[in-house]
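Recall the central idea of this unit: under ordinary conditions, the amino acid sequence of a chain determines the structure it adopts. In this exercise we apply that idea directly, starting from the sequence alone.
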Amino acid sequence: MTKVMPPLNPLRAFEAAGRHVSFTRAAEELGVTQTAVSRQVAVLEGYLRNRLFERHNSELVITDTGRAYLEAIRPALEMISEATAATRGRATNVLKVRLYLTFALRWLLPRLPRFRAEHPNIDINLTTSIVPVDFDRDDIDVNICHGDGRWSGIQSCQVFQDQVTPVGARSLIEGPDAPQSPAELIGQNLLHSRNRVGDWADWFQSVNVDGRGAPGLVLETSSLVYEAARQGLGFAIGQVPLLKRELDSGELVAPFPVMRRKSGYYMLHRTGRIEPKVRAFREWMLREVEAQAQEEQAATARGAAGLQTAAA
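Accordingly, the structure predicted from this sequence is:
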């Protein structure tokens, strides 16, 4: 029995146009003109004897038939792409991760050798950006970003919850002008990240202090803020999980309460069938998070036991 197969070039044009709901963006992706995409889609519509797109007030709209056809063919096209890449000997096991620079430097990179040891066949391509990922447009497998867990049409899992508290160099904490209460921080030099402008205000609110308009030094990234705090330039508002090394060593001290909130760092990836490399990375990250949580619990228990021994 002869199999019914549509022409492949029109199929590619339709898949890109349907994914973007735009002939213009499909043309940019495929490296052709908008007219060429429109013509290829028309060829496929003629072959299928069905309208796949319509225009309503100059706006391109995919029809119900087009949407159903798109959902049916996308997995097959992905399988064709993966099989073709494997046959041509290209690196199909490259995991492309976009994340914030601070998270990369302070959390992921120190742990990445363990992932490489567990999965030597998966190569990692890291890019840093605070721009949200559009999985329909961007050639990215995983995005690690900050948020509240509410993303539409994207699978997400929390890496860790926000644990925010002021931190400063020991020289500031133990100096003659050291703040003795949260309210006394208002008179100190506070370090602000341009990308996390609300953290100080949220923390002050959590300890019932009016910190609106608190002056300080504004730096571009949290990485610069943490380094400035380490150099004794002022107090930073820090994520405890990202500052574990400095807090453990005593380079930075956190003398005030930690604010916990629902927002935090999340790992995002496409919905539907999860590629093995994405699943491996997600499971490894969650194991690392659990190991860090257990280590912190053990450290807290040791500290409590030490206090009881001293009291006895």
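The first helix runs from residue 8 to 20.
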